[in-house]
Design a protein that fits this description.
312 residues, alpha/beta, Glutaredoxin, 2 domains, seven-stranded mixed β-sheet, globular, disordered C terminus, binds zinc ion
Length: 312
């Protein structure tokens, strides 16, 4: 079964040059290329015909606008290739033969050394959310020199949820954790450098900090935007430092924010097991779905690289 999603930072040494001429590896099964639709920064290559006004296309164009208008990010360079297989079987075959080191995941974000961003997914019930999540990674990396791990996932979870960024499943789960004594710890998240360190609760917490900083006050929102701007220019920064300067009790304020969100939820039922977003149900060895430079050096056609993510 294919579960979750994954982000991969790789260099395809067999690639040609340029965004559209560069090829994904294609042992056994080519990536879809029969139908090509370019709009905005996206190039959709699909197994099936996609109308220019297809809701999936409109959705990603809206996502791009939302990200840039919300975060005041520059447009960035290069194209984002959106590869969608028409069947899970075709996707599984492609991923299994070309990325045998990677765990089974519903979708991938691949950043190639030349800068091309590629999202790989398959048709299915969760395609829209998967594309929003992975395309958020792509758009952030396209515009920012540095994207800390926690922020990358926090924004991906936030924008995946829609314009308001509200993820009721995350709220419900975090609320239960908080009632059991859990406290958010942004400094701990900021120290994370390895995707393997992040588990499902870290994704939820990353989402919470983004939502809190966005909504708590004009000051916290300003600090978040300044933080993002500095990172976009490659300047190291700490959102925890910034929030603490605004309010020394910012952790408690974040918990109160969570409590407000939980109170507004009409239905606080926990999501079913296995419904969580990144994690493959109860598979503990792949904490939060995102992978993985450590797999890559074993594959001769792939070279792991940190070049696109200097913070990791
Ligand atoms: Zn992600």
């Amino acid at each position: 079964m294919t579960l979750g999603r994954a982000r991969v930072v790789v260099a395809f040494t067999l690639l040609g040059t340029g965004c559209l001429t560069g090829k994904l590896p294609h042992v056994g099964r080519d990536a879809p290329r029969e139908h090509v639709l370019r709009t905005g920064p996206f190039v959709f290559t699909t197994d099936f015909e996609l109308a220019r006004r297809d809701p999936l296309v409109d959705d990603l164009l809206g996502l791009r606008q939302a990200i840039h208008e919300t975060l005041f990010l520059p447009e960035g360079n290069g194209l984002v290739r959106i590869v969608v297989f028409d069947s899970q079987q075709g996707y599984d075959e492609f991923v299994r033969t070309n990325f045998p080191e990677l765990p089974s995941r519903r979708a991938f974000f691949v950043q190639q050394a030349q800068g091309e961003m590629v999202v790989i997914a398959a048709q299915g019930d969760r395609l829209r959310g998967d594309l929003r999540h992975e395309a958020t990674h792509a758009l952030l990396h396209r515009s920012m020199m540095s994207v800390p791990l926690w922020l990358d996932e926090g924004f991906a979870e936030y924008f995946e949820a829609g314009p308001e960024g509200l993820n009721s499943r995350h709220v419900a789960r975090l609320d239960v954790d908080a009632q059991r004594g859990w406290k958010p710890d942004l400094r701990r998240l900021e120290r994370m450098r390895d995707l393997w360190q992040m588990n499902a609760s870290d994704y939820r917490e990353s989402w919470l900090w983004v939502h809190f900083a966005s909504c708590q006050s004009s000051q916290t929102r300003r600090e978040l935007l300044t933080y993002v701007t500095n990172l976009a220019h490659g300047e190291p920064d700490s959102l925890a430092d910034r929030l603490e300067r605004v309010d020394p009790h910012y952790v408690e304020a974040c918990l109160a924010h969570l409590d407000d969100l939980a109170g507004n939820l009409a239905n606080k039922t926990l999501p079913e097991e296995g419904e969580n977003y990144h994690v493959g149900s109860s598979i503990p060895i792949l904490p939060a779905g995102d992978v993985i430079r450590s797999f890559l050096p074993r594959r001769p056609s792939l070279v792991g690289t940190d070049s696109a993510s200097p913070d990791r």
